[in-house]
Write a structure and sequence with these properties.
This protein has helices spanning 3-10, 14-24, 46-56; strands spanning 33-34, 40-41. With 57 residues, it is mainly alpha-helical. The model has no long low-confidence stretch (mean pLDDT 91).
Length: 57
């Protein structure tokens, strides 16, 4: 899943995701895989994990 698709699914801006990743080293406990071209690929279950945590809080 691309960063843009992740951002759209969870209601964040892509810049917010990148900023959190750069500052903290992860995005709420989830680390993407970096492709050779520099783009990030997020695990397929990222949306479920993030929305599950959001609903519990």
């Amino acid at each position: 899943m691309s960063t843009a698709a992740l951002a759209s699914a969870i209601g964040y801006n892509t810049q917010s995701i990148h900023a959190r990743l750069c500052r903290k080293g992860d995005f709420y406990g989830i680390r993407p895989k970096k492709l050779p071209n520099g783009r990030l690929v997020w695990p397929a279950n990222t949306v479920d994990r993030l929305l599950g945590e959001k609903e519990e809080a």
